[in-house]
Amino acid sequence: MIKNLGDQNSILHSFIAEIRDEEIQQDPIRFRRNLERVGEIFAYEISKTLQYEPSEVTTPLGTAEVPKQADKIVLATILRAGLPIHNGFLNYFDRAENAFISAYRVYGKDNTFNIRFEHISGPTIDGKVVILCDPMLATGGSAIAAINKVKQLGGKDIRYVGIVGCPEGVSAL
Length: 173
Fold this sequence. Notes:
Blueprint: H1 12-20, H2 28-47, E1 52-59, E2 62-69, E3 73-78, H3 83-92, E4 97-107, E5 113-121, E6 129-133, E7 136-137, H4 141-152, E8 157-161, E9 164-165, H5 167-172
Parallel strand pairs: 3-4, 3-6, 6-8, 7-9
Antiparallel strand pairs: 1-2, 4-5
């Protein structure tokens, strides 16, 4: 299922506009902070799709039953570009485990390229929700390579988060 958060008007559009603005792209701190903010928005939206279980909390006025997140989360990021988004997710899923994926393009002489997947470093992912953060989906090659590796390692509930995606990459994914 694809959920495009850009279909609804929200503050997200302001952050995306700044991320895409060539002048703001020259300001590394502001650029990274906007990526982090977008990660926070995506984390909130994904939180709506997770499993929750009832839990009792002792308050100053007594006991209250509140739903608490039941899913165990692994935040996976394709290095390096996804790190600010990853940080935004960590602001909301502060108990999540972390995984880092090394994948990159290798260009040929005719300007074509292949995706080289080198390594994934992280915890066991069996029975956990894996949220893969990657800022841009162009051809989909690195995202597909990363998802296939996560599947090989036992990942079954994988959520891909991308900020910008072209139709070809979305279709391939």
